Recover the amino acids of this structure.
C-alpha cells in the first residue's frame, strides 16, 4: 500500500533561518509522482512542485529547494531564509504515474507539517 | 485563469440534518476530486470524476454521502444524514486529464456538526 510519512508535526523557526521539512514515502510502484503543497491559514492547498520518479535531479526555485532521493524514499523540502509569510501547513503527497484499474492517479497525502516562522 | 470555486465557505448544521456543497472546477479540467480533511490530518479522497463518470469512490461512505457531476463541469457533494464525525473541511480539486497532473484546490467548505 502507498503511504506518506511526515514525521515532523510542528516546526518553529525565527525569520531568516533555513528550515527543512522531511517526507518519506512507501510504494510498490516503480514509477510515481511526488508533490508538495502549501496550506496557509486561509485553507486553500497551493501546489508547489511535482517530481516524477525518473528524475532525481534536485531543484531550486527562489528560496525553495527540493531533495529527492529514491534510495531512501525521501523527498525533502528546504526553505532558505524563511519569512513570516511561509507560515503554513505543508503537505507531501504521492501519486501513481501509470493509471490502471487499481491506480487512479489520486493523491495520497502525509499528515502535514505545521511551520511557524516568528519575526 | 479563474481557480476552483466552492460554496458555501462555512456551514453549521445539527446531526442528522442534510447538507450540500458545490464546486466549479477550472475551465477545461476534465478531472474533479472531492477530498475530506479532518482537523490535523492530510486530505483524504472521497470521490474522483473523469468528465461526468466516477473513476474512484472506494472511500466514499455511500450510505450517507453522494456526489454527482451531471454535465461534466460543476459538481455537488451531499451528506444525508450528517454525523458528528463528518465535521471536516471538504475540498474540491480539479486537474487536466493525464497522470501526474497537478491538482488545483478550492478554498474548501468548513462543516461543523452540532
Amino acid at each position: 500500500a502507498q503511504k506518506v510519512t511526515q514525521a515532523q508535526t510542528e516546526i518553529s523557526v525565527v525569520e531568516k533561518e533555513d528550515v527543512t521539512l522531511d517526507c518519506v514515502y512507501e510504494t510498490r510502484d516503480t514509477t510515481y509522482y511526488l508533490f508538495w503543497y502549501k496550506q496557509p491559514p486561509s485553507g486553500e492547498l497551493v501546489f508547489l512542485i511535482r517530481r516524477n520518479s525518473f528524475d532525481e535531479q534536485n531543484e531550486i526555485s527562489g528560496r525553495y529547494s527540493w531533495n529527492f532521493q529514491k534510495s531512501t524514499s525521501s523527498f525533502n523540502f528546504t526553505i532558505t531564509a524563511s519569512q513570516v509569510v511561509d507560515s503554513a501547513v505543508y503537505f507531501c503527497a504521492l501519486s501513481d504515474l501509470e493509471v490502471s484499474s487499481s491506480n487512479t492517479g489520486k493523491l495520497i497525502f502525509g499528515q502535514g507539517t505545521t511551520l511557524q516562522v516568528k519575526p | 485563469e479563474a481557480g476552483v470555486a466552492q460554496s458555501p465557505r462555512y456551514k453549521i448544521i445539527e446531526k442528522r440534518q442534510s447538507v450540500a456543497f458545490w464546486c466549479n472546477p477550472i475551465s477545461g479540467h476534465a478531472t474533479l476530486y472531492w477530498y475530506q480533511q479532518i482537523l490535523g490530518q492530510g486530505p483524504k479522497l472521497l470521490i474522483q470524476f473523469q468528465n461526468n463518470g466516477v473513476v474512484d469512490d472506494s472511500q466514499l461512505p455511500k450510505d450517507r454521502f453522494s456526489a454527482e457531476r451531471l454535465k461534466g463541469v460543476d459538481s455537488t457533494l451531499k451528506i444525508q444524514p450528517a454525523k458528528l464525525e463528518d465535521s471536516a473541511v471538504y475540498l474540491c480539486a480539479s486537474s487536466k486529464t493525464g497522470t501526474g497532473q497537478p491538482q488545483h484546490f478550492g478554498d474548501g467548505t468548513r462543516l461543523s456538526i452540532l
Remarks:
- The longest strand of chain A covers residues 88-96.
- Chain A touches chain B through 27 residues (CB under 8 Å).
- The CA atoms of residues 2 and 27 of chain A lie 5 Å apart.
- Chain A has no helices and twelve strands.
